[in-house]
Write a structure and sequence with these properties.
Disulfide bonds join 45-48. It holds the Pfam family Thioredoxin. This is Thioredoxin. By secondary structure, the chain is an alpha/beta fold. The protein has a single domain, classed as 3-Layer(aba) Sandwich (Glutaredoxin), CATH 3.40.30. The protein contains 5 helices and 5 strands. It has helices spanning 4-11, 23-32, 46-61, 75-80, 107-118, and strands spanning 18-19, 35-41, 65-70, 88-93, 96-102. Strand 2 (35-41), helix 3 and strand 3 form a beta-alpha-beta unit. It is globular and about 35 Å long.
Length: 119
């Protein structure tokens, strides 16, 4: 039996970036959340490191779920999603891909992208 509290917590966005562990995990996150911003990143990538605090803030301050995929650990997953460079940011709304950007975007632009789909 699912209580109202349990049901609410299922769709509630985490307040910090969620590290994706597999393709099925990412598929589940996209299916279960209203708005998901997926960050395909690499530890050696300078622009990716610059985005880390921005994405942490967005996870905390917006209704979107921020998911992070390490392309070195999950090469087949990155390939399946057509990632050719890092960082690649992919935005999903209601299970559908609605935006994709390669390269770091400023915080205000990312916030606007998310807000376009969460309001």
């Amino acid at each position: 039996m699912t209580t109202e509290t349990d049901a609410g917590s299922t769709n509630r966005s985490p307040t910090e970036p969620l590290h994706v562990e597999s393709e099925s995990h990412l598929d589940d996150v996209i299916a279960e959340r209203d708005v998901v911003l997926v960050d395909f990143f690499a530890d050696w990538c300078g622009p990716c490191k610059m985005l880390e605090p921005i994405l942490a803030d967005l996870a905390e301050e917006t209704d979107a779920t921020v998911a992070k995929v390490d392309v070195d650990q999950h090469q087949p997953l990155a390939a399946a999603y057509g990632v050719r460079g890092v960082p690649t940011l992919v935005l999903y709304a209601d299970g559908e891909q609605v935006e994709q950007h390669t390269g770091a975007l400023p915080a205000d632009r990312l916030r606007t992208l998310i807000e376009n789909y969460t309001e």
